Amino acid sequence: VQLQASGGGLVQAGDSLRLSCAASGRAFSSMGWFRQAPGKEREFVAAIWWDGRGTFYADSMKGRFAITRDSAKNTVYLQMISLKPEDTAVYYCAVLKSPTRWGSRDVYDYDYWGQGTQVTVSS
Questions:
Q1: pLDDT tens-digit series, residues 15-40
Q2: Taking a C-beta distance cutoff of 8 angstroms, is the pair 61, 45 a contact?
């Protein structure tokens, strides 16, 4: 599976941003977004079943972040609103092959990763 993340950039606090992750290659069951701020561990943001049956969010991400997918484009999006400086991080998309690990927040459960896209939120 090849994943291409895009859409990051420099924005001001309160702005919105939509990240994209285009997938190609072998089949998988779900896709997730993670982020990693400087000096911190990579943290789970949200995940979505590839067949669209549902989504899952980290508690701290609910309300401002929304994960969606466009199956025709093989692309998953992460819409972020009301961005804060603490949202500054490299955002990564990743896929799970096995449906039995749905909802995992553990980076080690994910099988393939995109290259990451930088989001910087200025105050």
A1: 999 999 999 988 889 999 999 999 99
A2: yes
